[in-house]
Amino acid sequence: MNILKSTIAQLREQRMLSAISITGTALSIFLIMVVVISQEVKVVPFAPVSGRDRMLHARYGTIIVKDNEHYQSNGSMSIRSARRIYGDLPGTEAVSIYSAWVGDAIAKVPGIDPVGVALRRVDDQYWKVFDHTFISGKPFTKEDVEAARHVAVIDATTALRLFGTTDAAGREFQLDYNPTTVAGVVRDVSTLADAAFAQVWEPHVEAKEYTWNYGLMGGSSVTILANSKDDFDNIRKAADHNMEAYNKEVEETSWSFVSRGRPYTQEQDAEVEAANVEPDMDSAHRRQLIIFAILLLVPAINLSSLTESRLRRRVEELGVRRAFGCTRSRLLGQLFGESMIITVLGGIIGLILSVAYAFIFSNFLFAQGFGPKPLINLGMLLRPATFGFALLFCFILNLLSTGVPAWKATRTNIVNAINKH
Q1: Which of 195, 258, 191 is nearest to 221 (CA)?
Q2: What are the residues whose beta carbons fall under 8 Å from the beta carbon of 163, sequence distance 6 or more?
Q3: pLDDT tens string 38-67
């Protein structure tokens, strides 16, 4: 309580320096948290990717010519290859094989202009891996996929544009001029949900898939929902075993699959730059640490000068307190406490600014290069980990900016301090 009262008194007495310190802290935390938020949305769970911490991804596959690794083909797999390698694995709740990319399609009903939609082809397991929220109808079934029926799940916006209502299950429309029945309607999906995003989903049919390299490569990716993160190692070992068996089956093609460490965790998958490059997580973490260090050190140096200026004006007060028996450690602790209150105040402002910035400039900050403007909500941005990061950065910034000035102030000779020398 004494520290709080002292801090409030100092804020009132040195308003200009205090305002500059709080503003500088707020801007520093703002910049850091924008970086953190832009990275966190790639890995944090939110519907319909609530199971991200249990997901493994094989977005691509890699095949090489036997005894010649320099001659290789990288890209999405065929349904057959994906099923043989990843389709039967222990420790999994569900395994989905779906089209690697969303494509452009035309949706049409009589009486309205054609509507452009983002289309993804998926299997029946897709709805178990990704927890889309159905507001009408239900997912299409395994039988629908195997029979290649013209059924589809559409998002709420598409339902409104086509039918004027989200209660559209059972209604018919033309999808790329093929008569199609709406199996269900789901809430709109953010493009930040990666593989879960589309506006229309239809069955992913093997017979209709374009393949190459003897049917080994095609247009499919895989997402595995594990029972637990503890199953990841066993799942990868089983996938490697399946891959070895599959390579023997296709030996006559002279091609064989290599894993490149797949399937990847959500964090690894977010760092994938190309199918032929395994994500280097150590390098990614170092890059993040360097960015955080720069964003912390530069303002810390400036704030340190401001802190020293504030303490010079209090040198007489500090000397008197020392003369009446206040120890250096206690005085140092109080100075850190006062500075921490100011730092946290600036940090709160910075955190609020970063969240507001993420909302207002979401299209710029979270640009995906496809689909509509990313949907953002507070559940994605304000998580316990976000507050934890903000508090940690406040503490580090306070330590860096206050440490040297506070130590020097408490080491000043008592007589010189009282006489302001």
Answers
A1: 195
A2: 109, 171, 173
A3: 888 889 899 999 999 999 999 999 999 977
